[in-house]
Amino acid sequence: MSEQESELLTKAELAVRARRSLGLMSTSQKNAALQAISGALIRRMDEIIIANDADMEAARRDDVQDYILDRLLLTPERVEDIASAVLEVVELPDPVGETIESRTVESGIIVDRRRVPLGLIGIIFESRPNVTVDISALCLKSGNCVILRGGKEAINSNKVLYDIVHSASVSEGMPVGWVQLIESTDRGVVGEMLSLRSHIDVVIPRGGKGLVSYVADNSRIPILETGYGVCHTYVHANADFEKASNIVINAKVRRPSICNALDSLLIDRSIAEAFLPDLARKLDRAGVELRVGTECSRIIGDGVAVLDLRDGDLDTEWNALRMAITLVDGLDEAIEHIQDHGSGHSEAIVTEDKLVGAIFLDEVDAAAVYLNASTQFTDGGEFGLGAEIGISTQKLHARGPMGLREMTTYKWVITGDGHVRA
């Protein structure tokens, strides 16, 4: 057995042993542990920043892309935000033990459907150290043990954050080992995790297309995909230009590195001459690089520098101030384009035509579809769900923002009084 296999198996066994105890913890006990974690994050902030500085320095030496550096960076303000997010989980309703439905059937037995934790969750994520805390808090509140395997770029940050989460929660009575961090940066450990069906109940990948595809193709364990986003906004012929411009700029510029940021803009050809030049100038002033075809380039004119649209650009999640622009002839072509090139994450239409908007919302197959709003709203907090594990682009067992309830399954609980079946 290799060193990384030994680490994984040892930590998985510790987590399995903690699973029953964690599932029995009361809401007040779990909330006390979460409050302790939040406080410890603030008290140990200097340790977190020093560890993150080491990760950032190493990432810069390795010429890591800017959007990854942005995700990797922890500042005092960001650590405070992480600590606040943990306290937000305290305020969320505890889903564990909730009776979803109850009925007395013809035989007289009482049949309940009750929420229970998923069990032991394996989280494979890339260079976002905040995930170490965010995921742990959600798993704790939903009664799930968790094994974390983060990207090598964040290893120093993740070690400190894991230690804070584990030690603070155990001090409040949570079972030792309920959360584990795989410290090996050997990529082979990911494959080993995906084969550990005897211990891990579900795997959740959090990252780009490459990671999600690898996990989906190689896992022997059920997975919950938190998908990458190739997100579109379609500006229909009957759009309000000012409204459309504001939505497009927000969807692209507010936070370009997140999965719900706009990647590809579709514009009805009939309004392109009137709408596109002014929008292109605004995007250019915001620092957005535009990838366009010959027709769009001609319409935009000489005042804005553009790049030629290349093969693959329409299927790219940019995670940067970069976007593709394409002209379409009407609603049907826009929907076909989205279905051909979208990832099933977040898709939007801007139009004042209510019928067209309704058709778009009905026919576009994505986790979140928008009428006259920015795709950057795809977020558990913005949807009123509180914190989230990620955005699921699959259809089973959850779709869209995955909050606490999506971190549970259910079991049937049957009560009788000497009942036997005829």
Biggest β-sheet strands, sense, barrel: 7 strands, parallel
Q: Gyration radius, to the nearest Å?
A: 24 Å
- Overall structural domain count: 2
**Overall 3D shape:** globular
Mean pLDDT: 95
Strand content: 15-25%
Intertermini distance: 53 Å
Name the structural class: alpha/beta
Identify low-pLDDT runs.
none
Helices, by number, come to: 14
CATH superfamily of the largest domain: Aldehyde Dehydrogenase, Chain A, domain 1
Helix content: 40-55%
CATH topology of the largest domain: Aldehyde Dehydrogenase, Chain A, domain 1
State the total count of DSSP E strands: 16
Strand order of the largest sheet: 10-9-11-8-7-12-13
Write the element-wise H/E pattern from the N-terminal end onward: HHHHHEEEHEHEHEHEHEHEHEEHEHEEEE
CATH first level of the largest domain:
Alpha Beta
CATH architecture of the largest domain: 3-Layer(aba) Sandwich
Describe what this molecule looks like in 3D.
- The chain folds into 2 domains: 3-226 and 389-415, 3-Layer(aba) Sandwich (Aldehyde Dehydrogenase, Chain A, domain 1); 231-377, Aldehyde Dehydrogenase, Chain A, domain 2, CATH 3.40.309.10.
- The protein is 43% helix and 19% strand.
- It has helices spanning 3-23, 27-43, 45-61, 66-72, 76-91, 130-141, 155-171, 188-193, 209-218, 241-253, 269-285, 294-300, 331-341, 354-363; strands at 99-104, 110-117, 120-125, 145-149, 179-181, 202-206, 231-235, 262-268, 289-292, 307-308, 322-328, 346-350, 368-371, 391-392, 400-401, 408-415.
- The chain has 14 helices and 16 strands.
- A 7-stranded parallel β-sheet has the order 10-9-11-8-7-12-13, with helices on both faces. A 4-stranded parallel β-sheet has the order 5-4-3-6, with helices on both faces. The protein has a 3-stranded antiparallel β-sheet with strand order 1-2-16, with no helix packed on it.
- By secondary structure, the protein is of the alpha/beta class.
- The mean pLDDT is 95.
